[in-house]
Design goal:
Layout (H helix, E strand, L loop, with lengths): L6 H58 L10 E8 L5 E7 L5 E4 L5 E4 L13 E8 L2 E9 L4 H51 L14 H49 L7 H28 L8 E3 L1 H12 L8 E6 L6 E3 L1 H18 L5 E9 L2 E7 L33 H11 L3 E6 L5 E8 L2
Parallel strand pairs: 8-10
Antiparallel strand pairs: 1-2, 3-4, 3-6, 5-6, 7-9, 10-11, 11-13, 12-13
Helix pairs in contact: 1-2, 2-3, 3-4, 4-7, 5-6, 6-7
């Protein structure tokens, strides 16, 4: 099994490498910038010396005709005293704090502010500038390439300051990185712990992440997921119980009737066998409905689309359903004229309309009224079924289209498989449409679905 590297180590290494690289880059750029500035400063200083001092030497030679006594331009007397023999001794110092040398027209150095300047120097060790009088070179001014101790001290101080600042910045950045890593890993550990609980089948309470970033949104999404799982688990348990209940009733009737026939209580006549046949039909419808729902949820439902007149389809459903009832409320159909046919599976949409109409007939009193309307709406065909029954309670509205959902007893189902509205939703969504329920302002319920025209 490959060795696992904790996320904390990966983040720590990433932060450490980034911080060290950044600080090293800043130090390198700072040191280079300071050094380049000093180099430019020294270059400008040399140019000024060549320009000013070279002009003085040129004038001196032109006035004196030789270099005799030119040392007065290089040195100055700072102290005069007599020695023990009475001789006058003068203490002289270089005027310029720069190693200057002067060579004659033959290129021989005869005057220098450095004792060792008389040796042979390479071109890399010095810079030279010619001294000319009336266009004739009479000497050469030499400046030894050197590093001023003060400048060297400043450069060293700048490097030292940059190094210390970089070290302090590295430490602060590492502390901040550790804090950020802790902030990142804390919610991840919490989410990992609750995820393990979910994997073991334990649905935890809400994940409370004390953050204000994307992790908080992730925690809220996780809470919604757990709520959905909890709701799905409850729905599964309820659905299992409801399916068992739906199956138990017809199976019990079939079993009881057959036992009575076998025991000789009932004669095997058409009258005693008819209830058994009706219950087998009910079981068949229930099994077919569950199979169709499973296919729709798995995305394997196949639609046989054809150009269909929705208004005509509604009238066919009403004409087939209402006359078969002994007592039924009045049913009114309103279809918009000129509405062009749309491409749908007529069998599935007929089942949707039949389920909605059956639901309205079940909960509407015989003195009430049911209205079914078909019209165009924003590039879609809208169909609604409105009744004057007891209406729907607000807490039941969001869950009406769940399988086997038992809501308000006033609208609780009486007969049927309990899957009508769930099937209607799946068929409408399979056509790219949507379906919803609401209460009429004047009373009663209204179920509406829309299908795209294109």
């Amino acid at each position: 099994m490959p060795r696992r590297f904790p996320l904390a180590i990966k983040l720590g290494l990433a932060f450490f490498i980034t911080i060290v690289f950044s600080v090293a880059l800043v130090y390198f750029l700072t040191e280079r910038s300071v050094t380049q500035r000093f180099d430019r400063y020294r270059e400008q200083q040399r140019k000024q010396i060549f320009a000013l001092f070279g002009r003085q030497l040129s004038v001196y030679y032109e006035q004196n005709g030789s270099w005799r006594g030119v040392d007065r331009l290089f040195y100055r007397v700072v102290e005069t005293r007599r020695d023990e023999d009475g001789k006058v001794v003068e203490k002289i110092v270089a005027i310029y704090n720069i190693p200057l040398s002067l060579a004659n027209e033959e290129g021989r150095v005869f005057l220098s502010t450095r004792p060792d300047i008389g040796r042979q120097l390479s071109p890399e060790e010095m810079e030279s500038g010619p001294i000319a009088v009336n266009g004739v070179q009479v000497g050469t001014l030499l400046i030894l390439n050197f590093v001023d101790p003060d400048e060297a001290a400043i450069l060293a101080s700048a490097r030292r300051s940059a190094l210390i600042g970089g070290g302090v910045a590295t430490l602060l950045a590492l502390v901040l990185a550790l804090f950020l890593i802790a902030q990142i890993l804390s919610p991840l550990r919490t989410l990992s712990a609750v995820t393990d609980q979910v994997a073991r089948g334990v649905l935890p309470d809400k994940v409370r992440l004390r953050t204000r970033d994307e992790f908080r949104g992730l925690g809220e999404s996780f809470d919604r997921m757990v709520d959905n799982l909890r709701r799905s688990e409850k729905l599964r348990e309820t659905m299992t119980a409801d399916i068992a209940h739906e199956l138990r009733t017809p199976v019990t009737i079939i079993q009881g009737t057959l036992e009575a026939i076998l025991d000789g209580i009932y004669e095997p006549t058409a009258q005693t066998i008819a209830p058994i046949y009706e219950e087998t039909l009910h079981l068949g419808r229930l099994i077919d409905d569950l199979r169709d729902l499973a296919l729709a949820e798995a995305g394997e439902l196949r639609l046989s689309r054809e150009s269909t007149d929705i208004g005509g389809l509604v009238r066919q459903v009403v004409e087939a359903a209402v006359p078969s009832m002994d007592e039924a409320p009045s049913v009114e159909v309103q279809a918009e004229k000129g509405l062009r046919p749309i491409s749908v599976d007529p069998k599935r949409i007929r089942q949707v309309i039949a389920n909605l109409l059956s639901n309205a007939l079940r909960y509407t009193p015989t003195t009430g009224r049911i209205e079914i309307a078909v019209h165009g709406a924003e590039g879609e065909v809208e169909v609604y079924v409105s009744d004057t029954g007891p209406g729907i309670s607000p807490e039941d509205l969001p869950r009406l289209f769940e399988r086997f959902y038992r809501g308000d007893p006033a609208r609780n189902r009486s007969g049927g498989s309990g899957l009508g509205l769930a099937i209607a939703r799946r068929w409408v969504e399979a056509h790219g449409g949507r379906i919803w329920a609401e209460n009429n302002p004047t009373g009663g319920a209204r179920f509406t679905f829309r299908l795209p025209m294109a």
